[in-house]
Amino acid sequence: MPIHQIHDLNERIYTAINNGAYKAGFSSDQTFFKIAFDAYFETLEYLEEHLSDGRPYLTGNHFSEVDLRLFPTLYRHDPVYYVRMKLNGARILDYPYLWRWLCRVYALPGIAEAGSLVHCRQGYFGRSWNVVPNGPFKPMSYPEAYRHPDLATL
Questions:
Q1: Model pTM?
Q2: Can you give the pLDDT at residue 129?
């Protein structure tokens, strides 16, 4: 993949996904929320299509900076951002190619041990809402779900 395409993908992911999650989640204005929400899900659709050609990672056959940029937000989406950031348009599980990509990255050496969803959920919910939601637990609890790329069907 040419360097300018990698740069463009990095920029799009940062703006619409990484930063977009916070723009949506902390917006106090419905118009700004809708702009961030729409950009977030339009970019998920774009990435889903991008991965539909069978490439294992966003830039091709090798894990890259672009994958690293996307991973933390998608890792948190279903168990945290879906509720806390009001990004309830769809789960990552609803995007089969993105789901398989997420599971593939989660399976890389050291990734599963690098972050704690328990700590993450307590940070996002416990400090500001005082109650940490129990779910999602269907189709199974997270992060266990990330070990099952077959949960998403094409």
A1: 0.91
A2: 64
Counting other chains too, the contacts that 51-57 makes at CB distance below 8 Å and 24 or more residues apart are 51/97, 51/98, 51/100, 51/101, 52/97, 56/101, 56/104, 57/101, 57/104, 57/105
What distances in angstroms separate CA 153 from CA 6, 87, 100, one per listed residue? 28, 21, 10
Which amino acid is located at 53 in the chain? D
Rounded Cα gap, residues 20 and 87, in angstroms: 10
- The domains located in the chain, with CATH, are 3-151 (1.20.1050.10)
* Burial class of residue 145, CB neighbours in 10 A (0-12, 13-18, 19+): buried
